[in-house]
Amino acid sequence: MFAVHLVSSFFSKLQEDPTKKVDRFLYTMHLHDDQLSDISACFQAEMKKGLSAESNAAAAVKMLPTHVHSTPDGSEKGQFLVLDLGGSKFKVLQVKVREGTGIGRGGVDIEEKIYPIPEELLTGSGKELFDHVSESLKDFLHDKNISVENKLPLAFTFSFPCEQSTLNQGLLLHWSKNFRARGVQGKDVVQALRGAVDRTGGMDVEVLALVNDTVATMMTCGFDDRYCEVGLIVGSGTSACYMEELRHIDLVEGDEGRMCVNTEWGAFGDDGALNDYITEFDREVDAASNNPGKQILEKMVSGMYLGELVRLVVLKMAKLGLLFEGSVSDALRTKGKITTAHVAAMEEYKNGLKNTRNILVDLDLSPTPDDCIAVQHVSTTVSFRSSNLVAAGLAAILTRIRQNRHLRTLRITVGVDGTVYKTHPRYANRLHKVVQRLVPDCHVRFVLSDGGSSKGAALVTAVAERLASQRQQVDETLSPLRLSREKLLLVKKRMRGALEAGLKSKGPFAVKMLPSYVYQTPDGTEHGKYLALGLGRTNFRALLVDLNKGLQQNSRLNHKIYPIPVEITQGSGEELFDHIAQCVGDFLDYMGMKGARLPAGFTFSFPCKQTGIDTGTLVSWTKGFKATDCEGHDVVSMLREAIKRRNDFDLDIVSVVNDAVGTMMSCAYEDPQCEIGLIVGTGTNVCYMEELKNIEKVEQEKGKEEREGEEEKQDDGAERQKKEEDAGIPKMCINTEWGGLGDDGSLDDIITHYDMEVDQNSLNPGKQRFEKLISGMYLGEVVRQVLLDLTSRGLLFRGQVTETLKTPGIFQTKYLSQIESDRLALLQVRSVLQQLGLDSTCDDSIIVKEVCGAVSHRAAQLCGAGLAAVVDKIRENRGLDHLDIPVGVAGSLYKLHPHFSGFLQETVKMLALQCNVTFLPSEGGSGTGAALTAAVARKTLEM
Ligand code: GLC
Ligand code: GLC
Fold first, then answer.
1. Ligand 2, atom 3: nearest CA belongs to which residue?
2. Is residue 741 within 8 Å of 495, Cβ to Cβ?
3. In the predicted model, is pLDDT for residue 555 greater than 60?
4. CA of 848 to the centre of ligand 2 (A)
5. Among 238, 458, 510, 671, which residue has the least CB neighbours within 10 Å?
6. In sequence order, what E strands does 38-192 have?
7. Which atom of ligand 2 is closest in space to residue 659's alpha carbon?
8. At CA 8, angle to CA 5 and CA 10, rounded to 5?
9. Ligand 1 neighbour 157 (Cβ under 6 A)
10. Residues 636-672: pLDDT tens digits?
11. Residues 242-268, mean pLDDT to the nearest whole number
12. Which residues on neighbouring strands pair with residue 206, listed in sequence order?
């Protein structure tokens, strides 16, 4: 651009280039990139100050929450009236966001009418101003034949700073630009509008949203471009808004998701932040304005002031003899004689100089060609400074967004509107270039808002309605997963009934209540070395336990885990046990102990019917297992046979225990009061010490044995009985297999159709209904079913049911835990979803997290209801009014999920008022429990 000037000055008599003269005169208006970076950094600090509750009152930049939570997703619909007040013109509009047309410009129809506002109304009484607004609205309805029979939804674009506590309310903080109507500042402008509508009469209007023009601009562009999360106005006034993380907005409750913040950056500098850059002309403009001392940045940047700045510079230069040979006209002395439109005309590409000359002549001046060049350059300098300052502000906002989202580079779109940006021939280009230089790590697209602030206001309303209806539908969807205290008490009661029934001798029972033949918990005197073997879901564990050392030490050392391939879990039983035997062999090799015949405890985490501590007939597989020819067989014999088939080592299998029992045993080793073991992992289960006299099935068998038994044996029995009495009441640990609750239909009123899907797709349909509501193997699937449903109803992932979402098992427990641990404004949720190949918006992430929360909360509550039944039963067994009882607990869900344990505890407390339950996470896991069981069993034998 300087080229034109240089060339023309070269031909103009080789005297000094007139632009240099201007540059020297206006050197403080030239802002270099490092200065702009300083300003940008300073503005970033101001934004922080405005967002924080402590410093907001003192902050110049107000950072006003707008209660706009989301940009459009293209599915918005509806028909709205819009009032647009505070831009260059007052307009009334009807905006139709058409249903079904989806994303695209074609989706919105606008009819509008401009209503001039008489000068005197701007500075008259607020009542008059709003009456004018409301009467214009009435005229518009009449003009466009809009029926007034029904309530008319209306959005109000009001381009002034408002403190909003909801979307459709807002106190005017102060007027800006050329408005100054009395009695409105500090008042709710929606209320003022309603009052005026009532006075006008004949209309029934519902104001749904109060929207700043920056916000409306962002929304308009956001309708076509989902990356648009910044709105910028450079018109009569200037401001910008952007999507901020809710957790950073102190003034609004909630910390999940985002909200648009209207920065009101026009006030930047009101506290002196821009003093280094302010010129005497800025001071003059400010002093002569409606609001001296206020909106300092706005007065350096926006359309209301640019022309005036140019006039003051030209006047001063003329007075100093630097222009027009020192002559000054009255017109040049008159405020408002040079407008922003003039500034734009002076900088036009081809006609700029000619226009400048005409403008000056109209001001009764006689400019030389050099004068014209100089004045044009003044205009360029003033408007260039404006775009530079806007660029610095935008750079601050973009950097903040990039940092908020922990991104190295940011792709973003800025929606822009305003007369200066739109009509000045060079403004937009310069702005874009400077922004690119200041924030090279942001890929910014600028989009001129089409339909501007009015269409946007309608969209704000439409988005709010979409969110509200979406919210309602999501709430409705999740409501069957939310269980009342009454429901949970029912579950407790049913569990209690099932526990009692299972102890009886005749089955079948939903809750199997399997005797474990573990009569005692450890007393701490156990000693010796044991091999602990464990078959869980996806792996087999071998562990050498030295009971002479602490349990924790044991679990770290001498430990090996062998993954079990899925083919083997679902192949033949012989293959499965051969595989296990091979793992044991490998472990003994590894420990160098193949020659020793070690006593071994076997943790087998499936339901087994036991007749002694060292036999167990598998009742049925649960969780992911399906190996053939195992159900109905003694798993200890199967293991022994597999070892025999190998013939390279020998093992003395002393005990077989369920993992719940193992857990209880290992916790009881630390705390002898512990008489309950709880597992919440892949599966869920509970065991507890039951009084022998209550275990009908064992008591009957015992009676049978005793009748058939010989004299010596009876002696033995009598001996043992005596010992047990010494130790207190005779008890036996019962493996409840509570996962089967509901298999008889008793939970049908709680089971949702999502649960039914999960059940139907499982390896054991109809079985383990309670487990399927609680444990890690199924929670992710329940979540997936809910997400599938929400998506197919268009409430999630833009309605796109992807292959990923259709893939069973993608939501592993660890992902649930990660999603629910998110404290980083959903960043973690999004990254988990991204890992899973699900492209989510911020709103999607909120919903996904909510679904996970509902499902895991329900799981913890149901588990708590079950546990409440167990502890109350123990309390009643002991005839106590109050019971303090520790529960040994293990399992990945319990251990890793951020909220499960808390909700579990809370629920037990709520449902078992007479019990005080504490939880002891098992240290050594169920493996050491198997060793302890073996040790206890051996001791009993030795006795
Ligand atoms: C003024 C107003 C602000 C508006 C801007 C652009 O700065 O205070 O609310 O966004 O002008 O119209
Ligand atoms: C399943 C099994 C049960 C086990 C539980 C936890 O419910 O049936 O035996 O204790 O999972 O692993």
1. 606
2. yes
3. no
4. 28
5. 671
6. 64-65, 78-85, 91-97, 108-114, 152-158, 162-163, 171-172
7. 10
8. 105
9. no
10. 999 999 999 998 898 899 999 999 999 999 999 889 9
11. 92
12. 153
Model confidence at 713, in pLDDT bands (50, 70, 90)?
A: very low
pLDDT (tens digit per residue) in 856-868: 999 999 999 999 9
Q: Which class for 350: exposed (0-12), middle (13-18), buried (19 or more C-beta within 10 A)?
A: exposed
- CA distance readout (Å), 731 to 402, 526, 661: 63, 19, 14
Place of tokens 């339901």: 607
Exposed, middle or buried, 585 (CB in 10 Å: 0-12/13-18/19+)?
middle
Q: Is the pLDDT of residue 523 over 90?
A: no
Mean pLDDT of 742-764: 96
891 lines ligand 1 (CB under 6 A): no
| pLDDT, mean over the chain | 90
At 448, is the secondary structure helix, strand, or coil? strand
Residue whose tokens read 């409501």: 479
Provide the token pair at 324: 């027009």
Catalytic residue (choose from 258, 400, 494, 541): 541
CB 854 within 8 A of CB 482: yes
Give yes or no: 822 in active site: no
Exposed, middle or buried by CB within 10 Å (0-12, 13-18, 19+), for 4? Answer: middle
| Catalytic, out of 236, 449, 605, 922 | 605
What pLDDT is attached to residue 313? 97
What is the mean predicted confidence (pLDDT) over 910-915? 97
Active-site residue flag, 485: no
DSSP E strand boundaries for 53-139: 64-65, 78-85, 91-97, 108-114
Which ligand has the shortest distance to the CA of 456? 1
Which ligand has the shortest distance to the CA of 635? 2
| Residue 605 appears among annotated catalytic residues | yes
Of 274-278, 307-311, 824-828, 877-881, the range with the lowest mean pLDDT is 824-828
Q: From the CA of 898, how far away is ligand 2's center (Å)? A: 22
Pocket of ligand 2 (CB under 6 A): 605-607, 622-623, 658-660, 679, 681, 683-685, 737, 739, 771
Q: Are 221 and 451 in contact (CB under 8 A)?
A: no
d(CA 694, CA 706): 18
Q: What is the pLDDT of residues 328-372, one digit of tens each?
A: 999 999 999 999 999 999 999 999 999 999 999 999 999 999 999
If one residue of 679, 686, 774, 922 were mutated to test the ligand 2 pocket, choosing by the most ligand atoms within 8 A of its CB, it would be 679
Look at ligand 1, atom 9, and give the residue with the nearest C-alpha. 160
- CA of 310 from ligand 1 middle (Å) equals 22
Residues 133 and 85 sit within 8 Å (Cβ to Cβ): yes
- Cα of 515 vs centre of ligand 2, distance in Å, is 15
927: DSSP letter:
H
